[in-house]
Amino acid sequence: MRVGFIGLGNMGAPMVANLLKAGLAVIVFDINPAAVAAAVAGGAVAAGSAKDVAAQSGLVLTTLPSPRHVKQVYLAEDGILAGAGKDTVLVDCSTIDPQTARELVSAAAANGRQMVDAPISGGTLGAQAGTLTFMVGAEADLFARIEPVLKHMGKNIIHCGGPGSGQVVKICNNLLLAISMTGTSEVMALGARLGVDPKVLASAINTSSGRCFSSDTMNPWPGVSPNAPASHGYAPGGTAEIMLKDINLAVDAAREVKQPVMLGAASQQLYQMLIARGWGEKDLSAIIQLYRDQ
Amino acid sequence: MRVGFIGLGNMGAPMVANLLKAGLAVIVFDINPAAVAAAVAGGAVAAGSAKDVAAQSGLVLTTLPSPRHVKQVYLAEDGILAGAGKDTVLVDCSTIDPQTARELVSAAAANGRQMVDAPISGGTLGAQAGTLTFMVGAEADLFARIEPVLKHMGKNIIHCGGPGSGQVVKICNNLLLAISMTGTSEVMALGARLGVDPKVLASAINTSSGRCFSSDTMNPWPGVSPNAPASHGYAPGGTAEIMLKDINLAVDAAREVKQPVMLGAASQQLYQMLIARGWGEKDLSAIIQLYRDQ
Amino acid sequence: MRVGFIGLGNMGAPMVANLLKAGLAVIVFDINPAAVAAAVAGGAVAAGSAKDVAAQSGLVLTTLPSPRHVKQVYLAEDGILAGAGKDTVLVDCSTIDPQTARELVSAAAANGRQMVDAPISGGTLGAQAGTLTFMVGAEADLFARIEPVLKHMGKNIIHCGGPGSGQVVKICNNLLLAISMTGTSEVMALGARLGVDPKVLASAINTSSGRCFSSDTMNPWPGVSPNAPASHGYAPGGTAEIMLKDINLAVDAAREVKQPVMLGAASQQLYQMLIARGWGEKDLSAIIQLYRDQ
Amino acid sequence: MRVGFIGLGNMGAPMVANLLKAGLAVIVFDINPAAVAAAVAGGAVAAGSAKDVAAQSGLVLTTLPSPRHVKQVYLAEDGILAGAGKDTVLVDCSTIDPQTARELVSAAAANGRQMVDAPISGGTLGAQAGTLTFMVGAEADLFARIEPVLKHMGKNIIHCGGPGSGQVVKICNNLLLAISMTGTSEVMALGARLGVDPKVLASAINTSSGRCFSSDTMNPWPGVSPNAPASHGYAPGGTAEIMLKDINLAVDAAREVKQPVMLGAASQQLYQMLIARGWGEKDLSAIIQLYRDQ
């Protein structure tokens, strides 16, 4: 089976490399010719459009920046649905809102095609190492068919439920990340101001009930987690801009179902404030600057 | 060496039991005669006042409900400082504000006595099992002297730095717990409303960047963490009232040093709202009711 | 000159009545035949489509529920732009986001047509009494041309600046209304809980620095403002649902320009919480229930 | 009747001047000799202590910076209660928490003395012009006795109810001021960023439902209210520090009665953030810097 891949950005490019390394034939398309050339140099075959990729592939993967791009690539005249055969499975790995994800699955079904939402987490490092997490929304049989392919690129392939549920899990997780990163920043800055060594503070929290990924793995105070962005000038990792994009998806999805998200909305505005001060391209853990830069 | 113990409540009583089990001689005092009688029935010796306890002990432990009580027990005419000998070490395990903790250490030093702040976490279950965490603020030599005694009651004895730092670490940890419990409640309720199975949602978060103690150990959605209060009608554990008391200590300490705590203050008000609705004596994870009870 | 009017809802119907009362010829369209019949009974002439209205009118007014409807009515094949003559002025009185408003003005200009945004405030009572406020975004000469017509329906015709500025002013005003209504609710409930008579409290605030429209005209505590919805079972006035719709427009517009709105976002979530509890069709001042219903 | 006055700061000094201008005999005390000398130069008589002031006066006024100072001046050995005769009325014009105010009224009553809480608003300009607002908590007959004296210093003498209610009204009003000033700052900054002239925006809001003291009298955008601090480099007026002190009193009083204040707590943290950036001595309207200084 040949695998199609559309969207060769920071995430897509290393994912293609891992598919090739696993011995799969990969057909690629991107609007950026340089990205295509690099993939071809690595062993992929180029196609002329998303439609062409779909026409030649048993499974098509997409990693695209926004709902607008995803709609365009799937629904346009030279898009995926126009080219995909009856048995081709479509897997969108972009992070988009659950409503759009479900609309696309329905549009695909109306065309007789099977589509899956499978957003990823793990960042560019995870993409390169093949240790990504995939959060998959799909019927059980469909999940079983795509899991072996995703295994070449990821370590955790989580079946989240039916169509759209991959996106729901992704935005819920990322909203909680935003809240706990902001909260960790508050208490690290508070503890330091009250005279406690940040390394000792983090170490105590990490064996107690405040423990979280943002305290024990990606601590926002410089020098606490040696490999974290905070210890390297807040070079991303995931940028504050992308964090805000994900928060916005979650807050908007909550609005659709009339669900309040008080801390989520507060984090949203704090990231907005951080970005307004020019920190948008830094790592999301730079949110601690709001509590230190005074 | 005999150990004195003042404050035989839900935490103090099982801590005394563990000291006795370790073969130590324990002298106790509490204003509640029934609590004293229970300790004596377990092998402790009763004294007539805090002063008497201190006069007969090489090390005195206190677990009391508020800064006011702690001041009273240490500073009153029949209090600890009036009775303690030169070599007696004083260890306050209550959770109070760092400023009061430091004032008491200074008051003890002015009397030629050595005092330590060592607030605990782990709840009544941890107190019974002897698996508490102690967060200790003390000079290094003093820490070395008390650590062996604390080991009889706890698993993690963390040296947080000089006087007051145990309290700082405690309130920082608990503020982060409040924030992440509230945040976890928001996203669990959001994900469920968007159609995802809460168990699947929690399981995905727990291997991702949203992972925290409140998602993987004390999840607020019923049935997700089988042993958590949420799975048992929100029977506490730590009550919402006590959570709010700890948040208040942290927000007030932040105020003293002019440090903003945006999410902390939002959590504070949400717990206030929960308690105003009559949930104060339920477990702190009942905060999820604000997002479900509609 | 004949005036076209599209959108004969709670606001549009009485506005048409006032135009007719002023002796103007009015041509109307609505997708709801009953609304059209009522306007015709009052003296208006019915047209078969938005395009037909525009083809026969020197000035076209629209009052529609959302950006999607506005786009549809202006841009569809049988829409306003397809019918309007070179000298016809188009005036949209709907409340929509500034970005969409500016896009429509540009689309009209590309067709050689002049369009104005003129959202209104004052509610159905103001629409009936002809005392609405119009917040108009238009070049100065265009403003001068439409002002006399708007005067038949409103008391304050405010020139807010160029295209889109009417919408900006509307959403800024309404966001501040949401914040001050929520804030007034907090302090009215707090003062009452602390034992002060709400009428006395409001009266003192209304001559002091806390004074605002929500305290002195539409006070949320029952009985304080005799004519306010709070004194009549929170019968709207403007509903909580519409308040939230306007808050959402403002928070989204802020997001577009990376501007933080901390209190705006908190009010947004509190209205979400109110609506989730089933109060969406009550007056916006019912937000005080979050502080009383415990 | 002679009037005693204790506390000759920015507010007290001009209040004494207005009492003297009205022909009253005034006996003063302050711990700052220069303040006493200035009052004496204006015609007042100096006493040696608070007790001495009380012993010679039929009515004693106090304006002091904090609950701690008020307690000291009333309850100390050389304090007011030690000196006041049976018929002397005590009027505390300081802003303190309602609980302390009520405790002091009870302490006075236990000594057979009548005490009133009468906090003021209007700032130093109002104190000089004799146009202050007094918010008075007192029984009706006592209010009638003191009103004529307060009239020499203020324009609005509001009877808020029984003991403590003056403080409740004061902190409720000031909390709402904090919220509406912060909210006005958000929307002024948002409107400007979206391209609307701030003067036009304010003018439209001031005839609409967003209207408040902070928009129409003390607008935070420079140049909108010509006499406001914002138009004079944010020279205070009331400082951000004092605003935060008042917010803290209100949020703490709310905590005592388990009343949530979501926007109040958010404003509290935003003022904390402003002060942490070094703006504490500027006018409270400088909160807009959080939305502009980026």
From TrEMBL, chains A, B, C, D:
Keyword Cell inner membrane: no
Species this protein is from: Noviherbaspirillum sedimenti
Pathway(s) of this molecule: Amino-acid degradation; L-valine degradation
Top EC class of this enzyme: oxidoreductase
Catalytic function, reaction form: 3-hydroxy-2-methylpropanoate + NAD(+) = 2-methyl-3-oxopropanoate + NADH + H(+)
Similarity annotation: Belongs to the HIBADH-related family.
PANTHER family: 3-HYDROXYISOBUTYRATE DEHYDROGENASE, MITOCHONDRIAL (PTHR22981:SF7), 3-HYDROXYISOBUTYRATE DEHYDROGENASE-RELATED (PTHR22981)
Catalytic activity, EC: 1.1.1.31
Protein name, per record: 3-hydroxyisobutyrate dehydrogenase
NCBIfam families in UniProt: HIBADH (TIGR01692)
Active site annotation, chain numbering: K170
Domain 3-hydroxyisobutyrate dehydrogenase-like NAD-binding positions: 164-291
6-phosphogluconate dehydrogenase NADP-binding domain sequence ranges: 2-161
Pfam families: NAD_binding_11, NAD_binding_2
Entry keyword Oxidoreductase: yes
Alphabetical GO biological process terms: L-valine catabolic process
MF annotations from Gene Ontology: 3-hydroxyisobutyrate dehydrogenase activity; NAD binding; NADP binding
SUPFAM superfamilies in the cross-refs: 6-phosphogluconate dehydrogenase C-terminal domain-like, NAD(P)-binding Rossmann-fold domains
Keywords: Branched-chain amino acid catabolism, NAD, Oxidoreductase
